[in-house]
Structures are given as C-alpha cells and as structure tokens.
Design brief:
mainly beta, four-stranded antiparallel sheet, 1 helix
Length: 385
Amino acid sequence: MIQTIKKVFIFILLSWGCSSNNTTENHSNTDNTPSEHNQNTISSIEFIDEFIIPDQEMNGVPIGGFSGIDYHNGKWHIICDTSTPPIRFYEANIIYNEDAFQNVEITKMIEIKDTSDNSLVQGVVDPEAIRYDPISSTFLYTSEGSINNGVDPALIEIALQGNQIRSFKLPDNFKANTADNTLGPRHNGVLEGLSLRFNSEGYWISFELPLIEDGPEPTTTDTESPVRITLFNRITGTAERQFAYELDPVAREAALGTSFEVNGLVEILEYQNNKFLALERSFASGYIDGGNNVKIYKVDASNATNTLLIESLNGADYTKATKTLLFDFETIRSQLTNTTVDNIEGITFGPTLDDGHKTVVVISDNNFNTFYPQLNQLIVFKVIP
C-alpha cells in the first residue's frame, strides 16, 4: 500500500469542499492450489461479478485493509494491511457460481503474534500478502516494514493460530537503508507480492517498486523500471533465484492540480513452472473514479536471467521476464460500483465452477476509508484455458 496516496487525497477533498468454511453446492470442492498434479493453462479471463464487502467491526476491531487473499481447499483467508495492533488476518466465507456471488462474509479474525505468542507492537510489521502452504499446514505473509523508520521488510511463516514460526533471511540489498539514499528499497514500495512455487518447493516474493539502484519509479513517460521477484527455498529459508520484471508507465497524469503518480507490482501468482499472473496497479491523484488503472499480465520467466547476484540492474546486461496483457480492468469499469476500479492488491485462484472452469478472485484494500471513501471490492473471473 502506498501511504502517500492518502495525503494527496486530503488535499483533493479539501479543495473540492468536497460464516463458516466455504462449502457449497454452487461449485465443486476443488483445491486449486497450483501443483504438478493440477496444471493450469490460461488464455483469457472473463468477468463474472463484483461484491462490495460492507464496512463493519469484529469484536470492536474494524474490518478492512484487504491487501492479500488466498484460497485453499474450501477455505478463504484475507490479510489486513495495518501496522496498528491487533495485526491480523481473516477467515472468510465466499460463495459464487458462474453467474454471480451468492454470499460473502468475514467469519473470523486471527491475530498475528511473535514467536513467544505475544501481540505485535505498533510499527514492527506492515502485512501485505498471505498464502497457505498445504505441505507444512502453515501460513506465509510478507511485510514491507517501514524503510524510512529503519524497519526491514520480511517474509514470515506463522502457525494456523497466528504465532510466528520463523522469519526468512532476506538478501542484504532488501533491507532498510537509511544511511545511503542511493541504495536499497523505496519506502512503501517493498514486498507486496507472494506466491507459492508451482512445485511447492518454495515461495516467490515480489517488490512493488524498483530498488533505488535498479532504476527510477515509473512515470507517465516510459522508463526502465525493473522490480525483482525472488524465490526462497522452503527448507533452508534462503533466496536461491531471482528475475526482473519490467513495470508499465503510469497510466494517466495526475489531475486537479495534484502531482502524485505511481505504478507498481502489487501481487503475483505462479500457475505453471516459471509462469505467473502479475497484478499491476497504476495510480494518479485527482480523479473522482479513484485514479486507479489495474491490469493482469501473464509473465514468463523461463528464459529470464538469475539476477540474485547482480548488485544493480541499471545498465546491467540481463534478460527480463516477458509479459503479455491478460486483462485490463478498464474493460469492466462501467459495470463496477460507482465506475470505480479500487485499490486492488490481492489475487488468488478460487474454486472450480460446475462447468469445469477455474476461477480467479481479486480484492481491494479500502485503507479503512481514513481520508476518502474507498471500497472493499471483491471481483471474480472465469478462467478460459
């Protein structure tokens, strides 16, 4: 989540004056976690329906900040993007068929704790993505930390009850660097994406924005802005491979006298070996429709260079992953609530429909409506092989 967006919209608004597990007869109880025994082929995806999850509370705690979503074997989990205790994720009941959503409800809140089962304090983590690992029966989540405050990003494994099991060892160039503003991650542009490896031997994590030494943030003019996607071994917990993914330019210029523009990689999902779905979100301030332009790309990293040992991608000789546009959310904007493509940050494969088609679900982070109205937007697609 890029917090600067909130500050921009304060200015805009002032200027304007202005329950239970998912079991259902609507679709089969099919596990769609990618594996060697469940190969996926994707040629296109088709919009089915949208659902807006209402603002609500659970045990006095607001529900929202839906930054990551995951589905496995009839169960849905959604992580909350907040650095304010309680740090948490949710269980949800999400039911749909080939025509529409049938029911959506948040059924349980699980607090994320440290290795001693203590509540996490303010600012220690900033969760962004979550995945369930069926081999270890644990969850993995990413935290982008707080670069400006010297808090490192992290990939963390937790038990089903939420207590931390281990934190993975990140490469040195992923760590917060407050001593040198020419190197390291950008604040609020760090570990947004997380995917299980297709063969279940590890976990992929992805940056939202380039490392400072790798290239500039995207602008409306095309730039060389590669982000790093890194594979971690699930046993050793160390990075063993990495490739570069090129970001699009920002989709549109900021409006109404504002100037904030950005485009980043907000989530990844490996569906075949070295082949991914990549969720890119561009934002420009000053738009009544929210200012977001979101696209899903198919990515092939089969021939991409292992960039793990390349200190700087700027000017280096390497091969990036290739990308092909799969879906542009502008094609369905008119069918969405308030013609809004909101702050979409999470993507997962869902259950298989009765007609045999797999599904993809995306979710948006409403930022708890702190400064301007946003939606907890849930959208489901049919996968066409």
